[in-house]
Design brief:
heterodimer, A: 286 residues, alpha/beta, Oxidized Rhodanese, domain 1, 2 domains, five-stranded parallel beta sheet, 28% helix, globular, B: 145 residues, mainly alpha, Sufe protein. Chain: A, two-stranded antiparallel sheet, 6 helices, 2 strands
């Protein structure tokens, strides 16, 4: 894979390579964070010194469908020993799908000094780099985050409704079967936790994984522009909303559009299909 | 009287009831995943017949059920995603518990046992994939009853 700086990204600084991470394992200004879907991966072996941020346990409010609040984020940041100045490097499974989700949540609290290790956990492992089961001992830090700001990169249901009524740009990043509504019900099992299958009216379908190469790295800017600008006609200057099922896969696309292609206004609709597909009175398309 | 579960599965479930921490659960499951043996070449070779793919499992799990002379089934599994540790653990449990077990007992397994092993704090997608893995095993048993 070509060097990250040569790929033409709008903000290449949001990505680091496995080489970069290997060279900063003992950098006190850097905290490496693993975020996965599979809860067994981190304890089975992780990058030396890396801490785990679990999307369910650490990032979500246990009693409301929402993310943690300022107090929760302060406590999380303290547990993983970061300050507002710490460079946090996220990596994880599934082409960094969950890592981008964690990064997005961190940015809700203004921790913008956050980057993704290109290629994620799989690339690190396939390069034969060290993985350890030893959990690092982290000195708790003191962290005072601002209140969570949901106004810039997060979209809520009513705002999405207004957005589509105004003809705004909308990207559905789920699989084609989910987009068409074909895979809502497998025999005996509701797959999506939604009563209807289909998509939000006006949405264009670009499965999130199209932005990734087979090795989990991100495609270069020209390849990404071919998908998002040429193929579905997104305008980087126009507000854009991305959604999936619960907002995790769409955080990957949010990262791509915002940081790799330089779109100015991208919001992740984390209510996504589990909210929209169940809501009374909201229109859908099949 | 309710039909029993396969004894080995019940044994696993009883063991997991004593688990109190997330770390302990993960360590137990990782040990089980380490024992996972993929389908032998005598049963199937890559590329696998898509008919054996577990629909909805993003770890790309496959299941085979082979009839035994006693009318029961031997199950075989593979998980193509090298990072699919949870699917490997679930496959290893199902292999040990269901291969050679009475079909009535295998047919009686509920997908909800996923949460007894993995806890409630797993993603919807992960829970669904592991449930579909169980469903595939149960399906073959029910087909022969």
């Amino acid at each position: 894979m070509s060097d990250i700086k040569s790929r033409g990204y709008a903000n290449a600084d949001k990505l680091v390579s496995t080489d970069w991470v290997a060279a900063h394992l003992n950098d006190d200004n850097v905290r490496i964070i693993e975020s996965n879907e599979d809860p067994l991966l981190y304890p089975s072996g992780h990058i030396p010194g890396a801490v785990e941020v679990d999307w369910v346990k650490d990032l979500n409010d246990p009693l409301r469908r929402d993310y943690l609040d300022k107090a929760g984020f302060d406590a999380l940041a303290s547990r993983i020993g970061i300050s507002p100045e710490t460079t946090v490097i996220f990596y994880g499974d599934k082409s960094n799908w969950w890592a981008t989700y964690a990064l997005w949540v961190f940015e809700l609290f203004g921790h913008s000094n956050a980057k993704i290790m290109d290629g994620g956990r799989l690339k690190w492992a396939e390069e034969g780099r060290e993985l350890t089961r030893e959990k690092p001992t982290v000195a708790p830090s003191s962290y005072a985050a601002p209140e969570r700001d949901d106004s810039q990169i997060r979209a809520f249901r009513d705002a999405v409704l207004q957005h589509i009524q105004a003809g705004g740009q909308l990207v559905d990043v789920r699989s084609p079967g989910e987009f068409s509504g074909e895979t809502l019900h497998m025999p005996g099992y509701p797959q999506e936790g939604a009563v209807r299958g289909g998509h939000i009216p006006g949405a264009s379908s670009v499965p999130w994984s199209r932005a990734a190469n087979d090795d989990g790295t991100f495609k270069n800017a020209a390849e990404l522009r071919a998908i998002y600008l040429d193929e579905i006609g997104l305008n980087p200057e126009e507000p854009t909303v991305a959604y999936c099922r619960i907002g995790e896969r769409s955080s990957h696309t949010w990262f791509v559009l915002t940081n790799l292609l330089g779109f100015g206004d991208v919001r992740n609709y984390d209510g996504s299909w589990t909210e929209w597909g169940n809501s009374v009175g909201l229109p859908i398309e099949k | 009287m309710a039909t029993a579960l396969p004894p080995k599965l019940q044994e696993y479930l009883d063991d997991f009831r004593f688990i109190t921490t997330r770390e302990e659960r993960a360590d137990f499951l990782i040990d089980i995943a380490d024992s996972f043996q993929p389908v032998p070449p005598a049963i199937a070779t890559k590329p696998y017949d898509e008919a054996h793919r577990v629909i909805g499992c993003e770890s790309e799990a496959f299941v085979w059920a082979v009839d035994r002379p006693d009318g029961r089934l031997d199950y075989y599994f593979d998980v193509l995603n090298p990072q699919g540790l949870s699917a490997m653990a679930m496959s290893a449990i199902l292999d040990e518990a269901c291969s050679g077990a009475p079909l009535e007992q295998v047919a009686n397994i509920s997908g909800d046992v996923v949460f007894s092993f993995f806890g409630r704090d797993i993603s919807m997608g992960k829970g669904r994939g592991l449930t579909e893995l169980i469903n595939a095993v149960v399906y073959h048993a029910r087909q022969r009853l």
